[in-house]
Specification:
Blueprint (H helix, E strand, L loop, with lengths): L7 E5 L20 E2 L2 E2 H11 L4 E6 L4 H6 L4 H9 L3 H12 L2 E6 L6 H6 L2 H4 L4 E4 L3 E4 L4 H12 L2 E7 L9 E9 L2 E9 L10 E3 L2 E4 L3 H6 L11 H11 L2 E5 L3 E4 L3 H13 L5 H13 L1
Parallel strand pairs: 1-4, 1-6, 4-5, 8-13
Antiparallel strand pairs: 2-3, 6-12, 7-14, 8-11, 8-12, 9-10, 9-11, 10-13
Length: 291
């Protein structure tokens, strides 16, 4: 039986962003720009390029700026038109046109698993993608599209993974199971931030998933873990016990933009990809390296 097409995505964006204080005291972390494009816009663009039509944004109080960003701004666009800055006006309009955005609130900070569960009314019984808002993955074929292709071919939930050095496994959720080929694993268990000696593999989950709607029931049955939060990893473990769960080693470069050094790394990498900025950035780097 052919699998249902994946046309919806969930982007959890309810966190406080404390690692970026004081910037995030009044600005959502997801709105901090990589050069001049907010992180959340880069995530949404990946989803749209992957064929996603409806994006469910799970936010919290004081996150209204994200919703405003993906709306039309008549005053700004009209002013730009009148000043004959039509290219800038079209940039603003194109953001509003980019997707059908559905915004929901996570009213209590009960963890990533709970944030995903909040999206159930908008997702229903369909498979869907999850993209974490501070994980940027630069790839020729969008990472989410790679996972959707695996889901639709295998008719099974799939998490994106990357191979990390053994000393770094304690930073991530790690998957274990049977390798089906060098890039694809049938997952039997997941371990959150294991010691290197206890890690079942070096395949880490950096924040991309395509899951069946059965994950919602698994999350409802998942008991709160550390800090009283419902962990998505625990829900995935239950899902793996009930149906096939795959792990796919995606192609692309991942940047942890939720970390300050990772954010700087991403900013430099994305700036150097832009022809109008690359020469100037290279000169700035030379200047600061000489200092």
């Amino acid at each position: 039986m052919a699998s249902i097409k994946v046309r919806k995505a969930v982007i959890p964006a309810a966190g406080l962003g404390t690692r970026f204080l004081p910037a995030t005291k009044a600005i959502p972390k997801e709105m901090i720009p990589i050069v001049d494009i907010p992180m959340i816009q880069l995530i949404v663009e990946e989803a749209v390029r992957s064929g996603i039509q409806d994006i469910v944004l799970v936010t919290a109080r004081h996150k209204g700026a994200i919703e405003d960003h993906f709306d039309f701004n008549y005053e700004l666009e009209d002013t730009l038109d009148k000043k004959n800055k039509k290219d800038l006006a079209e940039i603003s309009r194109s953001i509003g046109k980019s997707c059908n955005l559905i915004s929901l609130r996570q009213k209590n900070p009960l963890g990533l698993g709970h944030a995903v569960l909040c999206a159930e009314p908008a997702i229903g019984n369909e498979p869907f993608a999850i993209l974490l808002g501070d994980d940027l993955i630069d790839a020729k074929i969008p990472c989410t599209k790679q996972l959707i292709e695996v889901y639709e071919r295998e008719n099974a939930s799939v998490v994106g993974v990357m191979d990390v050095p053994s000393p770094e496994v304690s930073k991530y959720g790690i998957v274990g199971g049977k390798m089906l080929n060098p890039k694809l694993m049938e997952v039997s268990h997941l371990v959150e931030k294991p010691a290197p000696s206890a890690a079942p593999s070096c395949f880490a989950i950096p924040g991309r998933y395509v899951l069946s709607s059965k994950i919602f029931q698994c999350l409802k049955e998942t008991k709160p873990g550390k800090g009283g939060e419902i962990q998505l990893t625990d829900g995935l473990q239950l899902l793996a016990e009930r149906e096939r769960l795959l792990a796919y080693q995606f192609e692309g470069i991942r940047y942890d933009a939720g970390d300050r050094l990772g954010f700087i790394d991403a900013t430099l990498a994305y700036a150097l990809k832009r022809p109008e900025l690359a020469p100037g950035v290279q000169e700035l780097l030379k200047k600061h390296l000489k200092a």
